[in-house]
Amino acid sequence: MSDVAAIGQLVEKYKALKTEIAKVIVGQEEVIDQVLLAIFSGGHALLIGVPGLAKTLLVNTVAQTLGLDFKRIQFTPDLMPSDILGAEILDQNRNFTFVKGPIFANVILADEINRTPPKTQAALLEAMQERAVTVAGKHYPLDLPYFVLATQNPIEQEGTYPLPEAQLDRFMFAINLKYPTFEEEVSVVKNTTTDNQASVNTLFNAQEIIGFQQLIRRIPVADNVIEYAVTMVGKTRPKETTATEMVKTYVDWGAGPRASQNLILAAKANAAIRGKYSPDIEDVQQVAYGVLRHRMIKNYKAEAEGVTIEAIIKDLF
Fold first, then answer.
1. 138 CB-near residues (< 8 Å, 6+ apart)
2. pLDDT tens digit string along 77-122?
3. Does 73 lie in the same domain as 21?
4. Higher model confidence: residue 246 or residue 155?
5. How wide is the angle at C-alpha 294 spanned by C-alphas 70 and 43, nearest 5°?
6. What is the CATH number for 99?
7. Domain residues for 100?
8. Which CATH number belongs to the domain containing residue 258 in this structure?
9. Cα dist. 2→176, 279, 280 in Å?
10. Residue, of 158 and 133, whose pLDDT is higher
11. What average pLDDT does this structure show over 272-301?
């Protein structure tokens, strides 16, 4: 199949996927789009919102529709790295046997990831970047496709630990969930207070998803679009000469090179699901908030004056 035909097929399957998810999830269009963009780009996503906004339900529903092996890890203050990765145990013949932890699946739901200390959060670092884990000196590759979809409560809430910058940087998108509108909340209450349980159909398999990921990587990008993305990321660094006045005033640390890579990959996916054969600057701008939001650290002055990261990113355009 040619790449042009494959993009047409991706557009059709993407529409069907959104329809299936909408059977369970009311509203949250932008959130669903960004989660799916991360999946088709081969990236990870961090969903940030207060309890009760269907973060866990969304990830569960997406895993069902994609037909992938799914594991949920509930992060708690007493969780240990071995609870995630697995451990070597002594079997009946007094030989050490490795028992795999829940990280060995295609889709990992890291639920409330910021409720566990950084030592345990760091257990995900190698898996997210290398698609492999090392336990007791042995290297274990993970099955592809592989995604970590994490949920996080706002760090102002009780019992939360801020995610380290190295961990945050491995997420392609940080997605803020808002409260539903009045009409959406009415619909949620109607749908969830009866004995009718919505079910979703499986539309993909692992090989199809890997095929679409490879297709997105093959999509050509014009040099001016790449240069635009790299320039935008450079503007987030307060010590660079290209930094905007807002960045110099309100930002302590800017985004690294992984942000430029993710901007282009996400822009490619954003173009493909809309039937375009190459991304343009508008595609980069559409994905910029999700890609840059968690990679810029505001200073005290920004906090004191109530300046949001979104306002700083908008100024980059």
1. 98
2. 888 888 888 877 877 777 777 788 888 888 888 888 888 877 787 7
3. yes
4. 246
5. 35
6. 3.40.50.300
7. 3-193
8. 1.10.8.80
9. 36, 18, 22
10. 133
11. 86
Q: Beta partners for 73?
A: 110
Residue 191 pLDDT: 74
Question: Is residue 202 domain-resident?
Answer: no
β partners of residue 139: 134
Residue 140, pLDDT > 80, answer: yes
Q: Domain check: are 124 and 187 in the same one?
A: yes
Task: Report the C-alpha gap between 103 and 98 in whole angstroms.
Answer: 13
pLDDT in tens, 260-282: 999 999 999 998 888 888 888 88
Query: 229 lies in a domain?
Result: yes
Contact 148, 142 (CB under 8 A): no
Which residues does 95 contact at the CB level (< 8 Å), separation at least 6?
A: none
CB half-sphere exposure, 230, CA atoms < 13 A:
7
**Residue 16 falls inside a structural domain:** yes
| Residue found by looking up tokens 């670092």 in the block | 125
**Rounded-to-integer distance, Cα 237 and Cα 214, Å:** 31
Label residue 180 exposed, middle or buried (CB < 10 Å: 0-12, 13-18, 19+): middle
- Structural domain count of the chain: 2
Mean pLDDT of the residues in the chain:
83
Phi/psi for 23 (5° steps) reads -65, -30
C-beta of residue 81 within 8 angstroms of C-beta of residue 119: yes
Please give the torsion angle defined by the CA atoms of residues 29, 107, 143 and 117, in that order, rounded to the nearest 10 degrees: 120
Return the structure tokens found at 299. Answer: 């200073």
